[in-house]
Amino acid sequence: MSVTGYDFCGWATKNDLKCADGRVIRHGAFTANDGKKVPLVWNHQHNSPDCVLGHAILENRDNGVFAYGFFNNTKQGQDAKEQVKHGDVEALSIWANNLQQAGSDVLHGVIREVSLVLSGANPGAFIESVAHSSDPIEEWEDEGIFYTDEGIIIEHSEPVVTEENTEEKAEEPKEETSEESTEELSHSDEGEKKMADSNDRTVQDVLDTMNEEQKTVMYALIGAAIEDAKGGKSTNSEDEEMKHNMFEGSAADNGNFLSHSDIDTIFSTAKKSGSLRDAFEAYTDGGELAHSIDTTGMDVAVGSQTYGFNDPDMLFPDYRPLKGGAPEWISRRMEWVDVVLKGVARSPFSRVKSVYANITEDAARAKGYIKGHQKATEVFTTLKRTTSPQTIYKLQKMDRDDIIDITDFDVVAWIKAEMRVMLDEEIARAILIGDGRLSDDEYKIKEDCVRPIATDVPLFNIQFGVKTSAQDTPSDVAKKFMDDVIRARKNYKGSGNPIMFTTEDMLTEMLLLKDDIGHKLYKSESEIATALRVSKVVTVEPMEGHQISIDGTDFDLLAIVINLNDYNVGADKGGAISMFDDFDIDFNKYTYLIETRISGALVKPFSAITLYKKPVS
After folding, report:
1. DSSP, res 520
2. Residue 342 and residue 592: Cα distance in Å, rounded?
3. Which of 61, 59, 60, 69 is nearest to 92 (CA)?
């Protein structure tokens, strides 16, 4: 992995080294973080945005996880950058959870952030190279900062005990302001002060003389003292305290633990206030010393809440969908689709030939005979139209792994239902107004195979323009439209009582029509249908804004009046709607196909009326 422009780089963690808590990070434990970006923070502090110094890019290597650090432009980020550049801060530390272990071996986990710390706990984590200028960074060995005996912190997803990492020098206690504060000093506090005064040794110097077991015991006692300060069960009894092996770094029962940054904060506050007890109480009260507690399997943020318990949301039941597990479709309104598909006539063959003889001309009329004259022969024209079929389909693919992993609902049935709904809509749209694709589109449903009613030839479709002007209001257009629908019925020769398909806007304007005194003219859709001499009014969402071309000019489509029994859909045996499944064993993938092969056309002359908006000056 090639990363450039970083401010520093180094080992966030190294494999096969024993940490202070007894755990050993094994090879590949954090492979999931390879190439990931995580926050770069100060000392594992998560209670303020000010603690975020930038970000780190992680690279999984054979020896561990390498980190490339980028500081942000905040004051805190630039201050930290200067401290790293100057060599004041040398150590890196990680915060990880979702740990999987075999004994003390960490086999898997997820790194959530990388911290700059004053001291660590893994003997392999260190800052290896620092950028000293704006030039491209090169890893100069003689300029590298090498860390020898400290390392990383892992805050596990189960209770652990970590090695204390404070490097703060003992400070002179602030001048006491009252006798009460002096009396509250614990013996350990006084002992620390005496030791510092008599031998000129700091708290850190004393801690450095302790071996790992002694430090671990000290952390366990501090944790027990905090639990006692919180009002929990006393842990002074050895039987109660030692229910787990503290040297393993994890508790057999539920409990809290201190991270290194927590202990640093407690000691620092104790030195400033002069009372270790006050520092513990401030820590347990959740004030400015808010900390994080890891309990088995989950992270719990402890904030400033002083009643009940923190983060009650984690006890809420899981979110559940209202209607089963499958997502609901967001689609156009489909009611009109059933009206179209159930209304058309059907034939068991797809290649349809329509032959007509026009007997409306005068030459076809019967004639009167005059004695002695020759009788004239009848003459009439014949017309023929053929319609061939086309395949219409939908194709979907899914990996078998995904099908198995989706357990909340039957994803295959869900996908197949979507495919059928969308195929039906496309067929109904092609029958009524066409699919709307350009003529050169490779996916277009050909209009000489499934002939749209709205654009069919004048022999079958009566096209009627509703004349409107720029000054007309929507109500004016609705009134003219209703008048012209009735006028256009003059030439209609279709079967029975037709249906009118129109837009929601046009139906709304007709329902809002009022007389001169403000009373609505029509109280329901059925009253409008009666006034228009149709069986019912059906709104079609795809008709909104749809235009048809007449003599090379585009006009807004307003409505189609048709008895669908005069439109025939033909399909040969095997050409009906069919669903096919196929499995690709090489790619472990299912393919689903739904298709039909049909033809469609009006089969009765003058059986449809198309009304469009015709602007006039």
Report:
1. B
2. 25
3. 69
> Are 109 and 98 within 8 A, CB to CB?
yes
Helix, strand, coil % over all residues of the chain, rounded to 5:
30, 25, 45
Judge whether 327 lies within some domain. Answer: no
How far, in Å, CA of 172 to CA of 477, rounded?
90
To the nearest 10°, the Cα dihedral for 447, 448, 454, 455?
100
Number of domains comprising the chain: 2
Last residue of a domain, one of 315, 349, 375: 315
Closest CA to 479 of 438, 513, 442, 530: 513
First to last CA, the chain: 69
Q: Are strands 292-295 and 298-301 parallel, antiparallel or unpaired?
A: antiparallel
Amino acid code (one letter) for 209 = T
Do 9 and 68 contact (CB within 8 A), yes or no? yes
List pLDDT tens digits, range 421-436.
999 999 999 999 999 9
* Closest-CA residue to 110 (of 157, 54, 159, 59): 157
Q: Identify whether the C-beta of residue 130 lies closer than 8 Å to the C-beta of residue 8.
A: yes
CB burial readout 139-173, b (16+ within 10 A) else e: eeeeeebebeebbbbbbbbbbbbbbbbbbeebeeb
Crossing angle for the helix pair 504-511 and 474-488, nearest 10 degrees? Answer: 100
Distance between CA atoms of 401 and 359, rounded to whole angstroms?
66
Residues 260 and 118: beta-carbon distance below 8 Å: no
Q: Give the E-state strand segments of 419-475 in sequence order.
A: 461-468
End residue of a domain, out of 266, 291, 315? 315
500 lies in a domain? yes
Tell me the C-alpha distance between 296 and 530, whole Å.
72
The predicted structure's pLDDT at residue 211: 66
φ/ψ of 172, rounded to 5, equals -70, 130
Name residues whose C-beta falls within 8 Å of residue 3's C-beta, 6 or more positions apart in sequence: 9, 57, 59, 68
Q: Which of 112, 115, 117, 94 is nearest to 23 (CA)?
A: 94
> Position 598: which residue type?
I
Query: Does the residue 544 lie in any domain?
Result: yes
DSSP for residue 169: P
pLDDT in tens, 2-24: 788 889 898 888 888 777 666 78
Contact 6, 137 (CB under 8 A): yes
Range of the domain at 469: 460-570+603-615
Q: Cα angle at 281 between 276 and 287, to 5 degrees?
A: 120
At 216 the pLDDT is: 64
Cα distances from 554 to residues 430, 478, 512, 557, 612, in angstroms, run 18, 20, 28, 9, 10
Q: What is the DSSP letter of 87?
A: T
Beta carbons of 256 and 222 less than 8 angstroms apart: no
Separation in Å, CA 60 to CA 24, 31, 291: 17, 6, 29
615, 470 Cβ separation under 8 angstroms: yes
Residue 410 lies in a domain: no
What's the confidence (pLDDT) of residue 454? 94
Taking residue 290's Cβ as centre, other Cβ atoms within 10 Å add up to 20
Return d(Cα 541, Cα 381) in angstroms, integer: 40
**Which tens digits make up the pLDDT trace of 224-236?**
665 555 554 444 4
CATH of the domain at 542: 3.30.2320
